[in-house]
Amino acid sequence: MGFWDEKRILLTGGKGFLGTYVNRELVARGVAPENIGIPRSKEMDLRKWENCVKAVDGIDLIIHLAARVGGIGLNQKMPGTLFYDNAIMGIQLMEAARQQGVEKTVIVGTICAYPKFAPVPFKETDLWNGYPEETNAAYGLAKKMLLVQSQAYRTQYEFKSIYLLPVNLYGPGDNFDPESSHVIPALIRKFIDAKERGQAEMTVWGTGMATREFMYVEDAALGICLATEKYDEADPVNLGVGQDIQIRILAEMIGAIVGYEGKIVWDSSRPDGQPRRKLDVTRAERLFDFRASVSLETGLKRTVAWYMAQRKVA
């Protein structure tokens, strides 16, 4: 508890999907809710310098989660927006934190920063050995620049910041909007809709051969808080489970949980994205004793149950 005593924390993106769980984890660790500042984008747009200055005033610790994100479709449609918004928010926030003398800043990056053909499992030392997968390169590089800034500021200004690389997250509260959702919520919604409509077939983007690694959002929140408390070095650290799954198998799992009995049709004219994603998670376990604990099947069942409950309420 000593680390968190009387800390005034700025939690950007604190009302978002991941932020909600990080906020909950902070309170569970004894942080008083009134000591957690959560700027809302409508009132405090962090793309504007003056708002970043206001946000960090009187703050001891920053956990930067705020991001403009989406699936392959959104990345193909709005690469410029995703690059600018994510880069400018992080760059300005870190500079404001440096000027204000904030004790520590935690930057949450993205697995999209890794090269398209990085050796599997992805090791942090491979981060610069190639260009990211094209469909999400703009987003991945924008977030990657925050690692460069973090390390440069540590070298020149002795600015204390760390950089984390989480895998794809999922869980209750995720974004199920078909225009911008990631693969798990997108598939859950499509399967449930197809079942309710009695569709004999359901079409899914890609070949289904690519693999992804998924971490339950509660595990991610725990990992971020452990890193915040125990880690203080320049090197980036992966946050994941260390296991990947083929998208074709993932779709079959979700279909079985939902109870969809129709045929899955794969639209190979649509992009798969990066061929394979799986992280080496040994650094996180060694440096701050983090291990993900929620299995994919358990997490998927919880997520489907939450989404079905929200549909009933709606």
Description:
It is a single chain. This protein is of the alpha/beta class and 314 residues long. The protein has a single domain, classed as 3-Layer(aba) Sandwich (Rossmann fold), CATH 3.40.50. It contains 10 helices and 12 strands. It has a 6-stranded parallel β-sheet with strand order 2-1-3-4-5-10, with helices on both faces. A two-stranded parallel sheet has the order 6-9. Strands 7-12 form a two-stranded parallel ribbon. The protein is globular and about 60 Å long. The mean pLDDT is 95.
Radius of gyration: 19 Å
CATH fold topology:
Rossmann fold
The count of helical stretches stands at 10
Question: In terms of per-residue confidence, which ranges show pLDDT below 50 for 5 or more consecutive residues?
Answer: none
The order of strands across the largest sheet is 2-1-3-4-5-10
**What spatial form do the alpha-carbon principal axes imply?**
globular
What is the residue-mean pLDDT, rounded to a whole number?
95
Going by CATH, what is the homologous superfamily? NAD(P)-binding Rossmann-like Domain
Give the helix/strand class. alpha/beta
- The fraction of residues in strands falls at 5-15%
Amount of helix: 40-55%
In total, the number of strands is 12
Q: What is this structure's SSE topology?
A:
Blueprint: E1 9-12, H1 17-28, E2 36-37, H2 49-56, E3 61-64, H3 72-77, H4 79-100, E4 104-108, H5 137-157, E5 161-166, E6 168-170, H6 183-197, E7 201-205, E8 211-212, E9 214-216, H7 217-230, E10 237-239, E11 245-246, H8 247-258, E12 263-267, H9 282-288, H10 296-313
Parallel strand pairs: 1-2, 1-3, 3-4, 4-5, 5-10, 6-9, 7-12
Antiparallel strand pairs: 8-11
Helix pairs in contact: 1-7, 2-4, 4-5, 6-8, 6-10, 8-10
